[in-house]
Amino acid sequence: MGRILSLKHFEIVTASTAEEALTILETRNFDLITLDLHLPGMHGNQFLLKLSDCQPNIPVLVISSALGELITHSQVKSVLRKPFHLQQLLSVVATLL
What are phi and psi of 87, to 5 degrees? Predict the structure, then answer.
């Protein structure tokens, strides 16, 4: 995903864990976060709660393979279900930005 978005001239910062992402968010501002709910360590829902404490205005695009996953957090502006086509990703990102 990051490579495709970079090729479309989006600036991308990646994090391997939610904890790493939260550390990055302490010093940088972003226009959009893409979030897989099933992260190593902290679950995506826990990340969303911590995100709302530090940067409550960043829109979030959730990416999940779980069809029944309920996402009600106010920062979640869109959900892409895995698997998805890259054109879907680009379209949603463009809409959210």
Answer: -65, -35
